[in-house]
Specification:
The chain has 436 residues and is α+β, with helices and mostly antiparallel strands. It is built from twelve helices and 20 strands. The strands form seven sheets. A four-stranded antiparallel β-sheet has the order 2-8-5-6. Strand 10 and strand 11 form a beta hairpin. The longest helix is centred in the middle third of the chain and has 42 residues, at 167-208.
Length: 436
């Protein structure tokens, strides 16, 4: 049974081989049940520990453990470095390659162990081949059409992969694709760091202020001494958005902002930007900031009057009010502007508002840059995975500096230092806040 659609003839030095031919063991132990767990011992690999990139979770705190005595009862489910683990029931087809730190670990009953014949296929090439859409399509086709998708060991052995005869070519393909995967992982880590930085700054700036000044006690708790406490409608006035009739729905370049974000584009601006919009129905309390003119949809509240305050600061300020508290638990909860207007809030003078807004906007901009890079790299990986693993392009034909202009092979090595710098940014930003 083939797992690949027709992608044209393979080169002479490639071959369509079955998984049964390129593995020395394809094994599932269906009676692995009734296990007693211990605090420390032999790690147990479960389906939820298999990651999207074909690796296995490395955080030991997420594992369960069994005793060595119990593990010895199931010798064929004990893993060796280079083995592939695959989920074969439910969320079928998730895979993870076994690295050295999981030598001797065991797998649960809904997983299957594949041990490659290394004279025919390298483990990392095998891992990547099992991530291709072509293989997943074949896997789904080999599964009986039942409520819970399942693949058996015999059916899995019959599936085929396109494999180059030469192990050095397999290694080069795995190296190129691994390079892109590492770049993706670095961007994901940078996004996580900048997101955490923004969260920490948002909390610190809106509880302690920017200047590190003494606190005063108020009816809403301690706030910086120079901050003013008042009702929200004395700080800004919210107004319900506007519906758009079908007759008026003409495509244009004016964003129509619904509770969840920009829903469409219109040819008429209802409100001059910059503006701030809050989800009133649907995505309750989500805050959106716009630099341009816009149309606030009926599912939102928009800031009709900033009362002289900074719009960018106002957008961050409203995010701290936890509008989800007003969710009544009804099937269609709605944010009532009169209720929100009565909320007591504290805020700084405009100069400090503008500085806080700039700091938070800078962090957000960094996150967006990394998100764009992540999307570009993810698209590149999908394209290369398909083309390299079906021999549509050959690895020796690739110019990495051409297909990876940013980052290139040279700059990829610098991403690790970028992560360290992001941590330093978080530390220095926090120091900036406390110094002031």
């Amino acid at each position: 049974m083939t797992s690949e659609p027709d992608n044209g003839p393979l080169p002479k030095d490639w071959e369509e081989v079955s998984i049964g031919d390129i593995t020395k063991l394809v094994y599932r132990y269906p009676t692995y049940y009734g296990i007693t767990y211990v605090d420390e011992g032999v790690p147990e690999v479960r389906g939820e520990l298999l990651l999207d990139n074909g690796e296995i979770e490395s955080d030991r705190r997420k594992f369960r453990f069994i005793t060595e005595e119990t593990a010895k009862m199931f010798p064929k489910v004990r893993l060796e470095p280079g083995d592939i683990v695959m989920s074969v029931r439910g969320t079928m087809g998730k895979i993870g390659i076994v690295r050295e730190q999981l030598r001797g670990a065991v797998i649960t009953a809904n997983l299957i162990r594949l041990s490659p014949q290394r004279a025919m296929i390298l483990p990392d090439f095998f891992r990547l081949a099992l991530l291709t859409p072509e293989f997943i399509q074949g896997l789904n086709g080999a599964s009986p059409q039942t409520t819970i998708k399942t693949i058996t060991a015999p059916a899995l052995k019959d599936l085929t992969l396109a494999v180059p005869h030469a192990l050095p070519e397999q290694q080069k393909i795995a190296t190129v694709l691994g390079l892109v995967q590492r770049a993706i992982e670095q961007q994901e880590r940078l996004i996580a760091l900048t997101t955490e930085l923004k969260k920490a700054l948002l909390h610190k700036l809106f509880t302690e202020g920017l200047r590190g000044e003494p606190q005063k006690q108020t009816e809403i708790g301690p706030v910086p001494e120079s901050w003013e406490v008042t009702r929200l409608d004395n700080f800004c006035v919210l107004q319900r958005g506007f519906d758009i009739t079908k007759k008026a729905q003409v495509l244009g370049d004016v964003p129509v902002v619904s509770s969840g974000g920009i829903a469409s584009y219109h040819n008429v601006a209802k409100v001059k930007g910059p503006g701030v919009v809050v989800g009133r129905k649907g995505t309750l309390g989500k805050v959106h900031y716009l630099d341009v003119d816009y149309w606030p949809h009926d599912t939102t509240l928009w800031v009709k009057d900033f009362k002289g305050h900074d719009p960018l600061f106002t957008s961050y300020f409203l995010r701290t009010l936890r509008f989800e508290r007003y969710n009544s638990g009804a099937s269609n909860p709605t944010l009532n502007r009169n209720t929100v207007h009565a909320e007591l809030v504290a805020y700084p003078q405009k100069e400090e508002q503008e500085e806080i807004g700039r700091i938070l906007r800078t962090v957000e901009d960094k996150t967006r840059v990394h998100e764009r890079k992540l999307q570009t790299l993810t698209d590149l990986f999908r394209t290369l995975l398909h083309q390299l693993m079906t021999a549509q392009i050959r690895v020796h034909e690739l110019d990495l500096d051409e297909i990876l202009p940013q980052p290139t092979r040279k700059t990829l090595d610098k991403l690790s230092s970028n992560i360290e710098q992001a941590g330093q940014i978080a530390e220095s930003s926090s120091q900036l806040v406390s110094d002031r």
